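--- STAGE predict ---
source: upstream dedup step, 1 unique chain passed
mode: sequence only
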Amino acid sequence: MQVTTTEFRKALGHFATGVTVITVMREDQSVHGMTANSFTSVSLEPLEILVCVDRRALTHRYIRERKNFAVNILSEDQAALARFFARPEQDPATAQSLGVAFHATERGTPVIPGSLVQLDCKLASAVDAGDHTIFIGEVVDMSVQDGRPLLFHHGQFKRLDDGGPV
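--- STAGE serialize ---
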């Protein structure tokens, strides 16, 4: 049986993930972001993460050019930001109405205030894989705050329930 792209996406929708926004500085010093759930830790020595980015995405170009990016792990109250950054084009008027804001790390990497985790990364390596590139970032700084994560499951943003541990 040959698996279609639609069937594959539907099958992978069964896997619940956290939601991140990858942020990177453009050459004009404005910020670009992209919602991503293809993110995971890679190594503790050195501290590395990976994120998979479609080669057609603007984020792909900016990471390759700038060599620095941030991974912002979103809190459950940041679904509107996740939807906004899932768009290929990010309208400044919509960003303003949503209260989209950034601040810079000591290295100048843009991060999203209020996100649970902000990982400031320098590009360690890149591996082409199908229509995406796997960007491996060395974590050079981070900020962590308490809260509950935003989840993505079956094509929808969701919250953790209050059922406690299993």
